[in-house]
Amino acid sequence: MLISINPANQHDLDILKENFRGFVREFMNCSIIGDKGYIDKGFENLLRQGKVYFEAIKEIRQTLRVCYSLATASENMIKSFIERTKYKILNKLRKSIETNFSKLVAMFSKHIHAVSKKGLSVKLLLFTIAYNLKVLDEVNSIK
Fold first, then answer.
1. Phi-psi region of 29 (alpha: psi -120 to 50; beta: other; left: phi over 0)
2. pLDDT tens, the chain, 143 aa long
3. What's the angle, vertex CA 105, arms to CA 104 and CA 110, rounded to 5?
4. Phi then psi for 123, rounded to 5 degrees?
5. Would you say 87 and 57 are in contact if contact means Cβ atoms under 8 Å apart?
6. What are phi and psi of 33, to 5 degrees?
């Protein structure tokens, strides 16, 4: 598991670049979903060379444009439909992740006392486990 605790004023892309080798080792042959603003084309190509694939979530209206690089209109319609469907699914996934992350943060205490980064990491992992157990309990109580 790759965990990095950094100052809030440090940009996520800078942190990713600093931890590039560990990131590639951890996520080789995986697709990473994220915001377009968190990556640049050069770094995206570097990730791709390490067999890590970054999928930027675009707004759905951006995917409605027809791609004119294909030869026929029917190919354009298929490409457009696939892109729209793909980004609708990715946007639903993103919303789910953001909602669950907000619920997880709401469970945290306002102040976490930790003497070291390792201690803070353990506390954050325990909060995450507690949240997952809570969700599991809610799912089981529905059945």
1. left
2. 566 777 778 887 888 888 888 888 888 888 887 777 767 788 888 888 888 888 777 554 444 344 444 445 555 555 677 777 877 888 888 888 888 888 888 887 777 888 888 888 888 888 889 888 988 898 888 76
3. 135
4. -65, -40
5. yes
6. -100, 130
Give residue limits of the domains in the chain: 1-57, 59-107, 112-143
What is the token pair recorded at 7? 């100052």
Which two tokens mark 22? 């560990």
- Alpha-carbon Rg for the chain, nearest whole angstrom, is 19
For residue 38, give both structure tokens.
């968190």
Q: Which of 60, 59, 65 is nearest to 80 (CA)?
A: 65
CA atoms within 13 A on the CB side of 44: 15
